[in-house]
Amino acid sequence: MKFELEPYHKNTPSHELFDDLKCVAQILNKDTVSISEYNQEGRFHSGTIIRRFGSWNKAIEQAGLSKGVVINISDEELFTNIEKIWMKIGRQPRRREMKRPLSEYSETPYIRKFGSWRKALERFIEYINQDKKEDEDELEIMVEPEPERQQGPKKRISKREISHRLRFKILLRDGFTCKKCGRSPLKNPGVELHVDHLVPWSKGGESIPENLETKCVQCNLGKGNAFDL
Question: With contact defined as beta carbons under 8 Å apart, do 60 and 24 qualify?
């Protein structure tokens, strides 16, 4: 066996990158090339081209190809897509997995908007962990009852519906593993996870981290409205 380093493309002349873009377009019989298409058919990697020319569209344009249709996808839509994939497979999604049927969007809009797949994941983590007004609304300010009203109904400190951010944080905290049977999408493909109230909402339980845990669909549905005190 002969050990050799892979070719280093940092100093590849620009005209060679343009020629390869046009070659891939000819192979696909198209007047433009997407990032995912190029990574499958091209000699180099899309990251090399993006770093050289500043963006994928600039490279496509300078190569004399059509920029194609640019779809304006919001950050929230892109992040929600990552969240769904992460929850489904039980781990951080990889760039090569960003395709249907698993992903609603390819890697292309992420790289176009954030510069790289890694940067897109970093922005997603910031999005999940940031404290926004909508997250603060999950917990209302607890108001101590006046003496004459202490026998009245207990004031709720949270909403019944669990927000997307809170759900993801609980799954992440529990390692995307059912706390009852130990199954997870990573070890048991096809397993669907829910975030469940330990003390049911109907029995006074709150939608707060201390009262939430991860369960698979089977364990969650089997629990019903019962709980262990």
Answer: no
Q: What is the DSSP string of 138-195?
A: TBPPP-PPPGGGTTSPPPPSB-SSPPHHHHHHHHHHTTT--TTT---TTTSTT--EEE
Strand segments, DSSP code E, in the chain are 193-197, 212-216
Other beta carbons within 10 angstroms of residue 196's beta carbon come to 23
Residues forming beta bridges with residue 195, ordered by sequence position: 214
Whether the pTM exceeds 0.90: the reply is no
**64, amino acid identity:** G
Exposure b/e, 35-58, CB count within 10 A at least 16 = b: bbbbbeebbbebbbbbebbeebbe
Mean pLDDT across the stretch 111-134?
84
- Asked, for residue 134, whether it belongs to a domain, the answer is no
By residue range, what is the domain housing residue 99? 75-129
Q: Which residue has the higher pLDDT, 220 or 11?
A: 220
pLDDT band at 71 (very low <50, low <70, confident <90, very high): low
Tally of structural domains, the chain:
3
